[in-house]
Design brief:
This protein is of the alpha+beta class. It contains eight helices and 13 strands.
């Protein structure tokens, strides 16, 4: 590969990773996080596209380049406390989150500090390392209309966060989008990532988890496609991912139907196979 090895601005040797090497590094984050959770008596689940990959491909979706996991609010809050006291574990893995003043996002990201990244459309200053996302699942209202009102607020706040961390002159779409996107980015930055995050965090705590019958991904999900009975969510099931065993919610089949449709086991058309356009380098001193 051309330019596979070079120097970064700090004079460290960097080696560009192939797509397969990126997946191996992501899997290493997952495995080390699993060990960390076992030591601290915590439990996380595979969710979203990572769970779909486990069921449909027994590992990564071939064109995918990210990992999503989730935790129930009580477990997640314990992880938040641990991350605040000691964010690093396993030598070079680091937990960051807005709640602790270390991230632009209202959910925990676990970074591999030895792998730097560059995404085509975003520049997350201080967070440009290979990562996996850890989403909290919170109690939600049983009334769909009430949930929809709440999620409208969080979806609006998410868009602000994504725009505020976007590159000014990079946009998908035609000429018109390239013209008006910089103005939207500037407006989002004026509104502020802090205000947007605080809106989402407030929404996450709007329904008491202990007394809720339903749970969902308030921080970054939808009001209808990732909602399930708390009893089904808290009961776990084993799934296999790249020759490793992980946990997910017992109602994973219904979860995937509601999130991806009844034909979730069928491959989507090529134009729907979305990646993060991620470039990654391993840093060596």
């Amino acid at each position: 590969m051309l330019f596979r090895k070079s120097l970064n601005n700090e004079g460290f040797r960097v080696e560009r990773l192939t797509k397969q090497e990126v997946k191996q590094a992501l899997l290493a984050i997952m495995v080390n996080f699993q060990k960390y959770c076992e030591v601290n008596q915590l439990q996380f689940y595979l969710c979203a596209g990572t769970l779909l990959g486990a069921i449909r491909h027994h590992g990564f979706i071939p064109w995918d380049d990210d990992v999503d996991v989730c935790m129930g609010r009580p477990q997640y809050d314990r992880l938040l406390s641990l991350a605040k006291k000691e964010p690093q574990f396993g030598g070079h893995y680091k937990m960051i989150v807005f709640d602790n003043g270390t991230s632009h996002y209202p959910y925990i990201k676990i970074l591999d500090t030895l792998v730097e990244t560059d995404q085509k459309y975003t520049n997350e200053k201080g967070e440009n390392n290979l990562w996996i996302d850890v989403f909290p699942f919170d109690g939600v209202d049983e009334d769909f209309n009430q949930r929809q009102k709440l999620f409208k607020k969080t979806i609006r706040a998410r868009k602000i966060i994504l725009l505020a961390t976007a590159k000014l002159f990079q946009a998908k779409g035609g000429v018109l989008k390239h013209i008006y996107k910089p103005f939207l980015i500037l407006a989002a930055r004026i509104y502020g990532v802090k205000r947007a995050n605080r809106c989402i965090i407030k929404a996450c705590h709007s329904t008491n988890y202990a007394s809720a019958n339903l749970v969902g991904d308030v921080a970054w999900g939808d009001p209808d496609s990732e909602i399930m009975k708390k009893a089904d969510f808290e009961k776990s099931a084993e799934v296999h991912f790249e020759n490793h065993t992980f946990l997910t919610m017992s109602c994973w089949h219904q979860y995937l139907i509601e999130t991806y449709g009844e034909n979730y086991n069928q491959l989507p058309s090529k134009d729907q196979r979305v990646t993060h356009d991620l470039i990654a380098w391993r840093v060596n001193e």
